[in-house]
Amino acid sequence: MNINGFEIDEALIMENMMGPNAVRILEEMTRSVEIDEGMRILDLGCGKGLTSMFLAKKFGATVYATDLWISATENYERFKEQGMEDKIIPIHAEAHELPYADEFFDIIISVDSYHYFGFEDGYLDEHLAPLLKKGGRILVGVPGLKEEFTGEVPEELEPFYQHDYHFHTCQWWTELWKASKLVEGISSRELDCHQQAWDEWLRCDNEHAQEDIAMMEAEGGKYYATVFIGATRK
Ligand SMILES: C[S@@+](CC[C@H](N)C(=O)[O-])C[C@H]1O[C@@H](n2cnc3c(N)ncnc32)[C@H](O)[C@@H]1O
């Protein structure tokens, strides 16, 4: 699979995706970010580690591949198969109890998982931003909305949209992060790769992808966006 000029094993991606193509999303999120091999990166909610492998392979950085649903052992086996076990450290942890020292990371990234926990007031300052070095960057990509739903969920999405989805607009995430005392330079935008990332997800065999086909047909490109939010540690 070619992701903006970077070749990645398509079978590896198709077997391990857990949502809209996280590697494609991450590639767009990191295009203008300086990442080098001396850096330590936290990949929070890495799932089966596709984004961690991309970061290690493309930039040579050391990645702490951290996830809740997928065990460290399962991810370690995958990283060994790919010959990347020296660059990626698999960690099993919950996002509110991250086992890292303050100011340990140069960059924190999170793709398609931050909306499960990061929507809470205060989460960023209490649990995540302290782990970043001063001047370090936090980069988040999540499924979101073009416009906030006011009142009811649109009728065509009713059968699919769960009330714990926490999909929100760029503006909503920006307002949430503006309350932070630890980050500055907040920016947010809808990513161009949204449609392609979803199309690739819906093509894979994962049972959740198969379930999402009907939702995306009903959504018809009207409501959803892939939202990026970034900031710098003060
Ligand atoms: C839809 S999957 C996406 C996985 C991966 N980022 C990807 O795109 O392939 C969401 C991930 O968020 C992680 N997650 C959800 N809640 C979490 C929590 N409270 N702490 C840590 N990880 C969490 C899950 O373990 C899961 O792997």
**Terminal-residue CA separation:** 37 Å
Q: Helices and strands: which structural class?
A: alpha/beta
Order of helices and strands: EEHHEHEHEEHEHEHHE
Count helical runs. 8
What is the CATH topology descriptor?
Answer: Rossmann fold
Count structural domains. Answer: 1
State the CATH class: Alpha Beta
CA-based shape:
globular
Explain how this protein is built.
- By secondary structure, this protein is α/β, with parallel strands linked by helices.
- It has one domain (2-228): Rossmann fold (3-Layer(aba) Sandwich).
- 31% of the residues lie in helices and 25% in strands.
- It contains eight helices and nine strands.
- It has helices at residues 10-16, 22-30, 50-59, 72-81, 123-128, 170-178, 194-202, 207-219; strands spanning 2-3, 6-7, 40-44, 62-67, 88-92, 105-111, 132-145, 183-190, 224-233.
- The strands form two sheets. The protein has a seven-stranded mixed β-sheet with strand order 5-4-3-6-7-9-8, sandwiched between helices.
- The radius of gyration is 17 Å and the shape is globular.
- The model has no long low-confidence stretch (mean pLDDT 97).
- The protein binds S-adenosylmethionine.
- The site of S-adenosylmethionine (SAM) has 20 residues, from helix 3.
- S-adenosylmethionine binds at residues 17-19, 22, 45-47, 50-51, 67-70, 94-95, 111-113, 116-117.
